[in-house]
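[Q] Does anyone have a clean structure-token version of this?
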Amino acid sequence: MKEQLFKKIAEKHDRMVDMYRYLHAHPELSFQEEQTAKYIEAFYQGKDCDVRTNVGGRGIVVTIDSGKPGKTLAIRADFDALPIQEETGLPYASETPGVMHACGHDAHTSYMLILAESLIEMKEQLEGKIVVLHQPAEEVPPGGAIGMIKDGALDGVDNVFGIHVMSQMEYGKVFYREGNVQTGRANFHVKIQGVGGHGSSPHKANDAIVAASYFVVAVQSIVSRRLNPFDVGSITIGNFDGRGSFNVIKDSVFLEGDVRSMSEATRNLIEKEIRAKLDGVAAMFDVTYELDYDNDYPVLYNDPEMTAFAANALQATDMPGVNAVERCEAQPPSEDFAYYAKERPSVFLYVGASPEEGEAYPHHHPKFRINPESMTIAAETMGTLVIDYLNGGSGK
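[A] Here you go.
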């Protein structure tokens, strides 16, 4: 059965690449993916499956029912882009100024459409159900996953699988890891309010820039002096807005920060310490502050048992183009697939997509690009997992 699926995917290769190039040229930002959602919906018209649109926003849920009893497996692909001006020079580069598929979600959608079509054509050989989650808005909190879940996307689902193509992982390899695999994320916004004044009379003012600067330095000690050295965490102050005039003491400063952690305990500790540092700065400089602290994407947890199943299934399958299936290190970015993993035992895998030529730029870079052939590997990888999961490994 897998050989039959791989043959179908190979026969549809050119269509998959055409889809990828079209989607890459027509990116849409998170929560604005109107045309992309219509494109996905149109693809399924006339096919033997159930399609539910506008799930939790612009999400699309496609159910492929074999008509036989069995488990229900959800497989997820995201489809939003980023506010980045593309600099790849590709012939199918973004036609939308300031918007780019710089994370591979166009590839995720393209491989998933071809895989879903192939599975629909083979569904009489399967058992149970496949639920395809076409998810918008992965990039921007609160993310599209949480809205789809609230709207019933996981109703009746037993487990969830996801794949991400990775531009800086070696093409031809598939990677897995159990446990906590991607960081949880928080962001915060702070307004520090002092008393403005003239540069010639600093004693009559409370300088918000000085207070905010002390805060920026103080938070650096949280990771170095409050976290266990074996824990993982980072704090980044990405915006410090204190612009004014050279001889004016600024009355207020606005800061924005990013927090990453690999456990809920670390996430909670960092938040507690940031609040304590702000209390200290307020007392030291006689200023006040307003804090908006948002814990958004959780730590992404791969269920160990399901991950072992996935690794064993892939290692036992001869997939064209796959040289190795390897365990990898945890990944620093956050990923809203973590919301599915909190609801159902799940696995998130990585497919190496380093380009054939030139530098492999990181995700979210204006020159980001992938090897399009990695989409075939992604489709074969997910297809292998679907067949082995639903048919109990009897689908060779």
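[Q] Thanks! Anything notable?
[A] The mean pLDDT is 97.
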